[in-house]
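Feature request, filed as a ticket because there's no other form

It would be nice if the structure record came with a short human-readable summary line next to the tokens. Right now we just get the raw output. Example of a typical job, pasted below so the devs can see what we mean:
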Amino acid sequence: MTVAIKVLADSVCDVPRDLAARLGIALIPTVVNIGNQSYLDDDVQLTRDEFYRRLPALHPLPTTSACP
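Raw output as currently delivered:
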């Protein structure tokens, strides 16, 4: 009997994308809520650099919600 296992991780796990691709790990974007806007932490809608650049000025602080 063969068992297939797929590893999924949310984007806040900080596994580099190239390593995830090499190991077959699927990265699921986390939803980041900033004010009344929601963004996927997928390096398209919201990059880590942009998030950390904006963070000091964000009040209230951002929240997250479950992966889609």
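Something like this underneath would help us a lot:
The radius of gyration is 14 Å.
The CA atoms of residues 23 and 31 lie 24 Å apart.
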